[in-house]
Design brief:
The chain is α/β, with parallel strands linked by helices and 304 residues long. The chain contains 13 helices and ten strands. The longest helix is centred in the middle third of the chain and has 16 residues. Bound molecules: adenosine-5'-triphosphate and magnesium ion. The site of adenosine-5'-triphosphate (ATP) has 11 residues, from strand 2 and helix 2.
C-alpha cells in the first residue's frame, strides 16, 4: 500500500543514517489473523542511528509489526529485511536474528527467581556463551548505565515498575543488539516512574542506539524521535520528521488522532514553558523536560 504523503521521506536528505543501507526495511508487509487484516501493505525503513517512533490508534498494527520484525510472527505478503537479509528467508537463522534485536515489552517479564544482576547476565552466559565473571561485569556496567547498580542483588519483586523496566532495558542491551525494539515500554507504569524510563531511553538515543519505539508518549516521539510513522488500520498513513507529524500533519486521520490525545499543532509550534506532570520528589527530571504546559500525559488519561 502506498505510504501517501510519507513519500516525502525519500526527498529529505537530512534523515539520520540516510547515507547507508537501512538496518530494517519493511516493504508492502501484510499480515492476517483469520479474516482480520492486521497489516495491509506496510512500507517504511529504519536507518542506523535513528529513533523511529510508531504511533497510532489501538489495534492499528504497531505491535504486530514489531512481532513480525523479529520473526515472532510470520507475514503473508511483502518483505522485511534486517541488515539486508530477509527475515523470512529460508536461510535466515531466526535465533541469531533475534539476538541482534533487543526487545522491551510493556510488561517487563523479568525472571522472578533471579537477582537483578542475574537477569541481566543470564542471556550473555546462556546464549552467547560468555564467562560468568565477564557477563557479571558487563551486567554491572549496564545497571550503572540505567542507574540501578545499587539494586544488583535485589530480586525484581523488590523493585518499582520503572526500575524493573530499566532492568529489562539493561537485559536487552546485554546482548549488544544492533537495534532496540520497544513496545509501549512505559504504558504499564505509574506516572511517577515513566520519566526515569524515558530518561534512560533518551540517553540510549543520544549514544546513537538505533531504536524503534511504539509509544503513546507524544512528547518523547516529538523530542527524541528522528522519524515518526503513523499507523491506522494496518496501514502507514503518514510518516516524516516529528515537526511535520506534530505541527503540520498532512493527513486528516493523523490530525484527528493527535487531537484525540490533546495535541494541537498551534501549541507545539510555540515552545511552551515546561512543567512537571506531577511534583514527585526524587524523580528523574527528564519527564519534566518533556511535558509542555497543558499536555494531557498518557492518552488513556484524557481520551474522550
Ligand atoms: N494473535 C492475534 N490473533 C488474532 N488477532 C490479533 C492477534 N494479535 C493482534 N491481533 C489483532 O490485530 C490487530 C492489530 O493489533 P496490534 O496489537 O498490532 O495493535 P496495536 O496497534 O499494537 O494496538 P495497541 O495500541 O492497543 O497496542 C488488532 O485488531 C488485534 O486485535
Ligand atoms: Mg500494541
Amino acid at each position: 500500500m502506498a505510504v501517501g504523503p510519507g513519500c516525502l521521506a525519500g526527498k529529505l536528505a537530512s534523515r539520520v543514517g540516510a547515507d547507508a543501507a537501512p538496518i530494517l526495511a519493511f516493504d508492502g508487509v501484510a499480515k492476517r489473523y483469520g479474516t482480520l487484516q492486521a497489516l495491509a501493505g506496510v512500507s517504511f525503513q529504519v536507518n542506523r542511528g535513528e529513533v523511529v517512533c510508531l504511533i497510532g490508534p489501538s489495534g492499528s498494527g504497531k505491535s504486530t509489526l514489531l512481532r513480525c520484525a523479529n520473526a515472532l510472527e510470520g507475514i503473508d505478503a511483502g518483505r522485511i529485511a534486517f541488515d539486508g537479509v530477509g527475515v523470512d528467508d529460508k536461510a535466515t537463522d531466526v535465533r541469531k536474528l533475534r539476538r541482534r534485536m533487543g526487545m522491551v515489552f510493556q510488561n517487563f517479564e523479568l525472571f522472578p527467581h533471579l537477582t537483578v544482576l542475574g537477569n541481566v547476565a543470564v542471556g550473555p552466559v546462556t546464549v552467547l556463551g560468555m564467562q560468568r565473571n565477564a557477563a557479571a561485569a558487563r551486567a554491572m556496567d549496564l545497571l550503572r548505565k540505567v542507574g540501578l547498580a545499587d539494586k544488583a542483588q535485589q530480586h525484581p519483586a523488590a523493585l518499582s515498575g520503572g526500575q524493573q523496566q530499566r532492568v529489562a532495558i539493561a537485559r536487552a542491551l546485554a546482548m549488544q543488539p544492533d537495534v532496540m525494539l520497544f513496545d509501549e515500554p512505559t504504558s504499564a507504569l505509574d506516572p511517577e516512574t515513566i520519566g526515569e524510563v524515558l530518561s534512560v531511553m533518551k540517553r540510549l538515543a543520544d549514544e546513537g542506539m538505533t531504536m524503534v519505539v511504539v509509544t503513546h508518549e507524544m512528547d518523547f516521539a516529538k523530542r527524541v524521535g528522528n522519524w515518526v510513522v503513523v499507523f491506522d488500520r494496518g496501514q502507514v498513513i503518514e510518516q516524516g520528521p516529528p515537526r511535520q507529524i506534530f505541527e503540520r500533519p498532512t493527513v486528516t486521520r493523523t490530525r484527528e488522532f493527535l487531537s484525540h490525545l490533546g495535541w494541537h499543532g498551534e501549541s507545539l509550534a510555540t515552545e511552551a514553558p515546561l512543567v512537571e506532570r506531577q511534583a514527585t520528589a526524587g524523580r528523574d527530571s527528564f519527564e519534566a523536560q518533556l511535558i509542555p504546559t497543558g499536555s494531557g500525559g498518557h492518552p488513556g488519561a484524557d481520551a474522550p
